[in-house]
Structure formats: structure tokens, C-alpha cells
Amino acid sequence: MRRSVLSVLASVALFASAASIASGAIGCTAPKAEDPQSILRSYSRALEEGRAEDAYRMLSDEARRGISLEAFKRMVKDNPEEVREIAKALARPTATPVVTATVTSSNGQELQLVLENGKWRVEATAIDLYAQDTPRHAIQGFVRAVERKRYDVVLKFVPDSHKEGLDPGKLKTAWEGHDKEEIEQVVSSLKQALPTASIEETGDRATMAYGAGTMQLVRERGLWKIEDFD
């Protein structure tokens, strides 16, 4: 029997709720805070036993803002099979949870941290000034490269289909010549938008609205690149 669209969405929502539990509880600085595995086990047990209110109380503040208690209870009640499947899956994690955190600066720069042996450590991505592992990192790296006039680096953000005939010298000539004002406006608008902008990601494509335009990105061989910024 095919699952209904509503049941699929319910499954996604319940899994997303589980993720919010782990991230929310980990952010707690209390010395006796539970570890991620314990929290997920408690959440899965509450779901399996039909204790929707108990499960709801384990959600992060952000998750509860996105769904009311009544809506959560209704979702659990209306999708019993999906709830049982998810509860069983969460009770048997396939790997040790990796606890991470993201700190965003006033200019939109993201810094990734990971919890190791009870201490927060700066992730490897922090040393890569021109990271392309996420759309946001790619946009930040692109802006940094343009501001520093590193046109050799800017080329790394150009999709293969757009690279023909381009080289650092031609970019320099255009972006410091007749296109200078336009590029400066784009960079300025991107910097203003980054701290609060939402990035919509669908498969290997992503978009971010900024100013009067939209940044379009494409992922090639695992690296995000700038396809257009019209």
C-alpha cells in the first residue's frame, strides 16, 4: 500500500523534531545535561508509548515554535505506523552522535564547532577561507575572494559550463573596469543579506535572495559554485 503524502510529511516532521531535540539539548550548559543518545531514547520511548505530550516537551524552543502541542498530538495520533517506525529507528542509532554547533557573526560568517570529550573545538572548515561545502560557505568565500581581488580563487566558484574563455586576468579587467560598479553593488548587497538570509536548497541547486537579485548556486562534484547573481 502506498503511503499518503500526509503520512510522509508526518514522518519528516517527526524526524526533524528528533534532530531539534538533540541540537537543543546539547546546547544546554548545565553540568548534568543528558547526552544525545539518552535524549533520543527517551523521545523514541515516549513516541512508542503514545506519550505525545512528553515527547513534545523534549523538543527545542525553535521546534515548538514551528508546531503547536495540539498539532503534534494530532500528527502522532493520525500516523501510528510511522510513529512506531521512527521510534524504533531512533532507539537504535547506527553511529555515535556527533555534537556540533554553528555560531554566526554579525556579518553572516559562520563558524562550525564540534564537541569532543566534553570540550568545544573549532571545526576544520574554520581554516578554509574559501569553503564550498555548503551554499552559504560558497557565497561567503566568493564575497571574500572578490573583496581581496583573488580572481584565481573566484574562478573556483565558476561552474565548469561557464569557465570557457575565462581566466583571472579577464575577470580582473572586467570586474575592475566596466563591471566594477555592478560587482561592488552585488558584493555589498550579499554582505548585507548573509546574516539573516534564508537559502533554499533543492538537490544540487540552491538560491538566496539578496537586495534586488537572487544568487543561484549549483553543486558540482560535491562543491557549491555560483551559477548566477542576477
Q: Your description of this structure?
A:
47% of the residues lie in helices and 17% in strands. The chain has 230 residues and is of the alpha+beta class. The protein folds into 2 domains: 87 residues, no CATH class; 100 residues, Nuclear Transport Factor 2, Chain: A, CATH 3.10.450.50. Strand 4 and strand 5 form a beta hairpin. The radius of gyration is 22 Å and the shape is elongated. The N terminus is likely disordered.
Name the structural class: alpha+beta
What is the mean pLDDT? 78
Output the CATH class name of the largest domain: Alpha Beta
Helical stretch tally: 10
Largest sheet: 4 strands, antiparallel
Low-confidence stretches: 1-16, 19-33
Instruction: Domain count, please report it.
Output: 2
Please list the strands of the largest sheet in the order they lie side by side: 4-5-6-7
Element pattern in H and E: HHHHHHEEEHHHHEEEE
Topology:
Blueprint: H1 5-26, H2 36-48, H3 52-57, H4 61-66, H5 69-78, H6 80-91, E1 100-104, E2 110-116, E3 119-122, H7 135-147, H8 151-154, H9 168-175, H10 180-193, E4 199-202, E5 205-210, E6 213-220, E7 223-228
Antiparallel strand pairs: 1-2, 2-3, 4-5, 5-6, 6-7
Helix pairs in contact: 1-2, 1-6, 2-6
